[in-house]
Amino acid sequence: MRRFTFLLLTVSLCALAKTPSTPAKSFTEQFQDITGRLLTMAKDFPEDKYGYRATKDVRSVREIIVHVASANAYAAKASRGEKANWDADEIDPKGYPTKASAVALLEKTTADAVAALKAVPEDRWAKTVQPWLAVIEHAGEHYGQLVVYYRNNGMIPPESRHSANK
């Protein structure tokens, strides 16, 4: 019983000794998680279905990927203090007509955004969490949209495949 008590106390103290997460670390982890999921979907979704749209009035898979890349580019610029406008800086999906070009754009803007995010000075987090909060939430919306696109096409999204195998 004493060994168990000692073990429990040791585990508890180790848990308490962990360095608390900072806003920078939390936002970086969340951004990398959601953009990683979107990038996995962008690579996984069949090229012959990249033109799929749930209704005529919504973006296609390819257009969603480019749209998310636009948000990443906006966040990187805004975070670096450059002039950035979410709507005006929207990347035209016509410039990325293939799956390969859309995926490459998403990879590039994600890497740029992660670098900008990691460069945010710690003291700035006390003043604002923007643009990162908005961009993470935006990416989450489009992640959900792509999950529906998968299901509408009789496919299982990558994250659901991984969950089923656990």
Structural class call reads: mainly alpha
Largest sheet report: none
Number of alpha- plus pi-helical segments: 6
Give the proportion of residues in helices: 55-70%
Could you walk me through the main structural features you see in this protein, from its secondary elements to its overall organization?
Helices cover 63% and strands 0% of the residues. By secondary structure, it is mainly α. It has a single domain (22-164), classed as dinb family like domain (Four Helix Bundle (Hemerythrin (Met), subunit A)), CATH 1.20.120. Helix 2 runs antiparallel to helix 4 (99-118). The radius of gyration is 20 Å and the shape is globular. The model is unreliable at 4-11 (pLDDT under 50).
Please describe the structure with a list of short key phrases separated by commas or semicolons:
166 residues, mainly alpha, Four Helix Bundle (Hemerythrin (Met), subunit A), 6 helices, 63% helix
Q: What's the short story on this structure?
A:
This protein is an all-alpha fold and 166 residues long. The chain has one domain: Four Helix Bundle (Hemerythrin (Met), subunit A), CATH 1.20.120.
Q: What is the secondary structure topology, with strand pairs?
A:
Layout lengths: L1 H16 L5 H22 L16 H19 L19 H20 L13 H21 L5 H7 L2
